[in-house]
Write a structure and sequence with these properties.
5-stranded mixed sheet, alpha+beta, Beta-Lactamase
Length: 165
């Protein structure tokens, strides 16, 4: 699948993966689904679910390092700023051969245009938070977040996932 197809699929994911509401219980359900997936697959990741300005779920699994929480913070800042997945922002910038610093003047110390943070959109309210995974390749971090959201919402993951490169 090419870059333009990935960009289209990312937009579809963002349109389809809409929560009816976001509260501590929803965040717990989403976060524990991701944790179970990671443990089953033997993955060392950090998982963060938040409403902007309010952490709701966080776990750092064995094998992660102090850099992972920083990646979570920087990737979730991208979602908070653009209301798009950090991977969608990355691919859009890649098509124009730009960086966030070049395009927006955003410091790399606070913003990371790498995959893994996905907007939590609530029906009737818009983007109110993010789910972020850190520890894998950015595309795989993104894929984990999407897979867990599909499971939570009862959506067909096969129809929404990015096709393997």
């Amino acid at each position: 699948m090419g870059l333009s197809e990935d960009i289209e699929r990312l937009a579809l994911q963002e349109r389809e993966l809409v929560l009816p509401h976001l509260d501590a219980d929803v965040a717990w359900d989403l976060g524990t689904r991701l944790r179970a997936m990671a443990l089953e697959r033997g993955l060392a990741i950090v998982i963060d679910v938040r409403r902007f300005g309010q952490p709701l779920f966080y776990v750092a699994l064995d094998g992660t390092n102090p850099d992972n929480p920083e990646w979570v913070r920087r990737k979730s800042n991208v979602v908070a700023r653009f209301h798009r997945s950090s991977y969608a922002v990355r691919l859009k910038l890649q098509t124009n051969r730009e960086t966030l610093f070049e395009k927006q003047g955003l410091p790399v110390a606070d913003f990371a245009e790498h995959g893994g943070s996905f907007p939590l959109r609530v029906a009737g309210a818009g983007v109110v938070g993010s789910v972020t995974v850190s520890g894998l390749d950015g595309r795989d971090d993104h894929g984990m977040a999407v897979e867990a959201l599909c499971a939570l919402l009862g959506k067909d993951h096969a129809a929404l996932r990015l096709v393997a490169e």
